[in-house]
Structure formats: structure tokens, C-alpha cells
């Protein structure tokens, strides 16, 4: 892998620009990906936050679901935040009728688990494996999902550290995939994106 | 380690709007419509009792919706639910917050409750979206605590011309500010009737500090694609969907056109066979005192 990997951001709906900026500031070249042709031209992909049911429908109608599954099977590194985490999960609790996930990450995710917008919150969290990991990361959780269980090959890298949801799993990774309940792209702290760029470089 | 958990922060409020970008927010008046909107790929629904076209047709004072109706829609869909409060009607906003809606639209589509003051939106945990016809108005709403801005357009008409005017106006004023030298920004703040710090921030960054959606008169996939090309971050569709011949198809088409706004082949494809669009009213035919764009100050 080249030292400056090309990382796409699935550009169907959601916080696309923020991921493009964060990746560019983390040592990658970033570009939007809307079609399967564009998917073939990137080394790795980010699935952004947004409305998971909307992104899934748009991906299906743009005939992107199968190419995305193929890419994951071919070990393309993928990072999903919030809605992206839901779309990467093998099992989703609270999905709307007919909603498919892309899958590939052996986890069970509960959609909108922390509640509605009134319960959206910020909280410092510890994340394993990022640079300077003893320093908390500002976790921004917006109608966020959490991970109910993890399966083979998935490592928990972040949990809620206090409050009513203490202990809930909000960050996981496997050898090629990374997923967070929160939105690192909404902060100016690029350590999670840097970790992903590092994963891409090391494959 | 003890970490503070903070709700209702600026980042959480504005971040919610960031996650709606590239999406379509649809007006719905009942559970059935809300489900059609969700199935079509709406990123959120706006629960209200009458769509703007009916408010225009029926006249009278238009107010916040019945809490029972909002509750039912919240229960029926899993996507975010927004609701409208009258301009300045902070008690309606308090009620909507207690119902647990995800966003409040302090909206000129309803009859204003206060002809001088808007709601002090900083007092709320729930975020607000407000309409604006120009940059000064947008920045005044942000000063009051709005976390998302939309163009006003002329709701309930199916005539997109005012939405175009407002979007072009806001974008051109932002560009003008960003080309100014520092000493000119002081006078610009005076002229825009907005706080200097916010004006200076826009001048420095060359962009509004929040998401800017478009609203008012969008009725077709091509309308949505045009507004996105003019720089909208996303689209509100009011009467345009459920006042048309085939709401489910049209809703889906507007969603597709909003995502693929820069691909005319997709917009052409989804525009086929949609049946009748809503019956339009030309903005020019509406008496000036019935126009919505002048509500809000």
C-alpha cells in the first residue's frame, strides 16, 4: 500500500464533507464515492453518519449494495461512523421493515439505542489503539446506536465510561473494519481517522 | 474515570443537522403519509396538521399540531420527526420539546405569534431550524440559537422561484463577505443587522456555520436537483409530495434527484411517469400581505 492511500467516502447522504476533510488531514487522499466504478478506484472506504435507512435505500437503488459486499469480502478496509456502523453490522435491532445492512462486521447493533435527539450527547471516552490513547476523545453521539454483542474477530475499542449507559460498547474493530457509534468527523480531533489510515497502510 | 455527559450542546444540535445533509425532509399530516415518506427514503418527516397548500386554501390562524397526532407519527416511524411552532411562540416550542420531537421548525408557514421577537432558542435542549431570505436574517436566527437554516421560499405554491431567490441571495452575500478586507466587515455587520463576531466568522470561513437547506415551492425532482446545484445542503418538501398524483413515486424520485443532483441522466430517469405534480400557484398572483417570506424579522 502506498504511503498516501486513496480513501473514498460513500457520498449518498449524510456527513460526507466532514469525513473527506478529516481523512485529508490524517494523511490520506480522500474523494467521494457514488458509483461502483468509483469504488474500484479507492484503497479503502468510509461510510458516514446520516440516516441509515436512507443510505441503505439509496445504495440499493444505485446498485451499490452488492459491490460494497464484494469489496468487504475482498478485504477492502472500511470505517463506518453511526449510520455507517449500522450498515456494516451483520445484525441490526430496530431496523425499519425491509432495511438490509451491508454487513461484514460480526456484531449486533441496536439502532437509535441511546434515544431520540433530546438524548443526543457529548462525552469524553477512552479509545484503545489511537495515538495518545490515555487522552480522552470527545465522543459526539447523535441518535446513536450501540453494539449489543460482538462475534469472532471483533475487538471492542471503546465503551461509555460513566452515566446511565456506562459500559455500553461504542467502538469496535476487526483486522479490516472499524466502526464507531459516535462521530469523530464532527470534531477537530483526527486520531480515529489516523488510526484508520494506519490500518489501510498496514494491509 | 468520571466523564460528564452533556446533552443539547451546540455540537450535538448542529451535528444532527449535518447528518441530514443530502437528504429530503417531507411534510406529513398523518401516520400513513409518514410511513410512505420513510419507505421512500426521507431522512426525516415534518409532522403538521395541514400542509402549506391547505393552509393557503383554508385560511384562518394556523398553529402547532395536536400532540396526539405528533405522538402517533413519532410512534410510527424510526426516522427523526420534526414539528412546527409559530414564530415567537415559545410555549408551543416547550410543548413540542416535551413531546420529544427531534427538531423544531420555528416557521413562517404558521401564523406568527409575536411580530417583534423570535423564540430564545438557547433555552431549549431540542434544536431549532429557522427560515431566512437573506444572510442577515440567517445570522439573526443563529444568534437566537437556531442550529440549522433553511431558505423560506413560498411554501404551498409549487412555485420554486422564491426559494431560488433566497438561496442565491444567501450564497452571494456569503461570497461577498469572504472577499472583504477586515475593515469592511465592521460596516457589513451593521448593514446585515447581525452581530459582528458571527459576520466576521462567515467572512473568515466563507461559509455559514450551520447547514443550509432549501424549502418552499419544491415540487419536482428537477426542482430539488436545481436547489442542490445552487448550494443547498438538502431539501424540505411540503405540499409537493402529498398534493401530487402519486406521492410514493414522487417522494422516491425527489430523494433520488437530491442525491444524484449532478447527474441529469438519473434526474431524467426518476422524473418519468410520476403523474400529476401539485397544482401550482404563481407567487406573483398572491397578494403581498399573504406572502410568507415577509414573516420573520
Q: Mind explaining what this structure looks like?
A:
The complex is a heterodimer of chains A (203) and B (297). With 203 residues, chain A is an alpha/beta fold. Chain A contains 6 helices and 12 strands. In chain A, strands 2-1-3-4-12-11-10 form a 7-stranded mixed β-sheet. Chain A has a 3-stranded mixed β-sheet with strand order 5-6-9. The longest helix of chain A has 12 residues, at 191-202. The mean pLDDT of chain A is 95. Chain B has 297 residues and is an alpha/beta fold. In chain B, strands 8-7-6-5-4-3-2-9 form an 8-stranded parallel β-sheet. Chain B starts with a strand and ends in a 26-residue tail after the last helix. The relative contact order of chain B is 0.15. Classes of the chains: A alpha/beta (203), B alpha/beta (297). The A-B interface holds A 11-18, 34, 49-51, 53-54, 57-58, 61-62, 82-83, 94, 96, 98, 111-112, 116-126, 136, 140-143, 161-163, 183, 186-187 and B 1-9, 11-12, 15-16, 18-23, 38-44, 77-80, 97, 100-103, 125-127, 255-256, 259-260. Strand 7 (121-125) of chain A pairs antiparallel with strand 1 (5-7) of chain B, so a sheet runs across the interface.
Q: What is the SS-derived class of chain B? A: alpha/beta
Q: What's the number of extended β-strand segments of chain A?
A: 12
Radius of gyration of chain A: 15 Å
The total count of helices of chain B amounts to: 13
Silhouette of chain A: globular
- The strand order across the widest sheet of chain B is 8-7-6-5-4-3-2-9
Helix vs. strand class of chain A: alpha/beta
What is the terminal-to-terminal distance of chain B?
47 Å
Biggest interface and residues each: A-B, 47 and 42 residues
Q: How far is the first residue's CA from the last residue's CA of chain A?
A: 7 Å
> What level of helicity do the residues of chain A show?
25-40%
Give the C-alpha Rg of chain B. 18 Å
Largest sheet of chain A: 7 strands, mixed
Tally of contiguous helical segments of chain A: 6
SSE pattern of chain B, N- to C-terminal: EHEHEHHEHEEHEHHHEHEHHH
Amino acid at each position: 500500500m502506498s504511503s498516501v492511500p486513496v480513501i473514498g467516502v460513500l457520498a449518498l447522504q449524510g456527513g460526507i464533507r466532514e469525513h473527506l476533510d478529516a481523512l485529508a488531514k490524517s494523511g490520506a487522499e480522500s474523494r467521494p464515492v457514488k458509483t461502483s466504478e468509483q469504488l474500484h478506484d479507492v484503497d479503502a472506504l468510509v461510510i458516514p453518519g446520516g440516516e441509515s435507512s436512507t443510505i441503505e435505500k439509496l445504495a440499493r437503488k444505485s446498485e451499490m449494495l452488492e459491490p460494497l459486499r464484494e469489496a468487504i469480502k475482498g478485504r477492502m478496509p472500511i470505517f463506518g461512523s453511526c449510520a455507517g456502523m449500522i450498515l456494516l453490522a451483520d445484525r441490526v435491532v430496530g431496523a425499519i421493515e425491509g432495511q438490509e445492512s451491508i454487513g461484514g462486521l460480526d456484531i449486533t447493533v441496536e439502532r437509535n439505542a441511546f434515544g431520540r435527539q433530546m438524548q443526543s450527547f457529548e462525552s469524553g471516552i477512552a479509545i484503545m489503539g489511537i495515538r495518545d490513547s490515555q487522552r480522552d476523545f470527545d465522543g459526539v453521539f447523535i441518535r446513536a446506536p450501540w453494539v449489543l454483542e460482538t462475534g469472532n474477530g471483533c475487538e471492542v475499542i471503546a465503551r461509555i465510561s460513566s452515566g446511565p449507559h456506562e459500559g455500553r460498547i461504542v467502538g469496535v474493530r476487526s483486522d479490516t473494519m472499524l466502526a464507531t457509534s459516535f462521530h469523530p468527523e464532527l470534531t477537530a480531533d483526527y486520531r480515529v481517522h489516523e488510526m484508520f489510515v494506519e490500518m489501510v497502510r498496514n494491509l | 474515570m468520571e466523564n460528564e455527559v452533556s446533552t443539547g450542546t451546540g455540537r450535538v444540535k448542529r451535528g444532527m443537522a449535518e447528518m441530514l445533509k443530502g437528504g429530503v425532509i417531507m411534510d406529513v399530516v398523518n401516520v400513513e403519509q409518514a410511513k410512505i415518506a420513510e419507505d421512500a427514503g426521507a431522512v426525516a418527516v415534518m409532522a403538521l396538521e395541514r400542509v402549506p397548500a391547505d393552509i393557503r386554501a383554508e385560511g384562518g390562524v394556523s398553529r402547532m399540531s395536536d400532540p396526539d397526532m405528533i405522538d402517533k407519527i413519532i410512534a410510527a416511524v424510526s426516522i427523526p420527526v420534526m414539528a412546527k411552532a409559530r414564530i415567537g411562540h415559545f410555549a408551543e416550542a416547550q410543548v413540542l420539546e416535551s413531546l420529544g420531537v427531534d427538531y423544531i421548525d420555528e416557521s413562517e408557514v404558521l401564523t406568527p405569534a409575536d411580530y417583534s421577537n423570535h423564540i430564545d432558542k438557547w433555552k431549549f435542549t431540542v434544536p431549532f431550524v429557522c427560515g431566512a431570505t437573506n444572510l442577515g436574517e440567517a445570522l439573526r436566527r443563529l444568534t437566537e440559537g437556531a442550529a440549522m437554516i433553511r431558505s423560506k421560499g413560498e411554501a404551498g405554491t409549487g412555485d420554486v422561484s422564491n426559494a431560488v431567490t433566497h438561496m442565491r441571495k444567501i450564497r452571494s452575500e456569503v461570497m461577498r463577505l469572504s472577499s472583504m478586507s477586515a475593515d469592511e466587515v465592521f460596516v457589513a455587520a451593521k448593514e446585515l443587522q447581525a452581530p459582528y463576531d458571527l459576520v466576521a466568522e462567515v467572512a473568515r470561513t466563507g461559509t455559514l456555520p450551520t447547514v443550509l437547506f432549501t424549502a418552499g415551492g419544491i415540487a419536482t425532482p428537477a426542482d430539488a436537483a436545481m436547489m442542490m446545484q445552487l448550494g443547498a445542503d438538502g431539501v424540505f418538501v411540503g405540499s409537493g409530495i402529498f398534493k401530487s398524483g402519486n406521492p410514493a413515486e414522487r417522494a422516491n424520485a425527489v430523494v433520488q434527484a437530491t442525491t444524484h443532483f449532478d447527474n441529469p441522466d438519473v434526474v431524467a430517469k426518476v422524473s418519468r411517469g410520476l403523474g400529476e405534480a401539485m397544482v401550482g400557484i404563481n407567487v406573483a398572483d398572491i397578494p403581498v400581505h399573504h406572502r410568507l417570506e415577509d414573516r420573520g424579522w
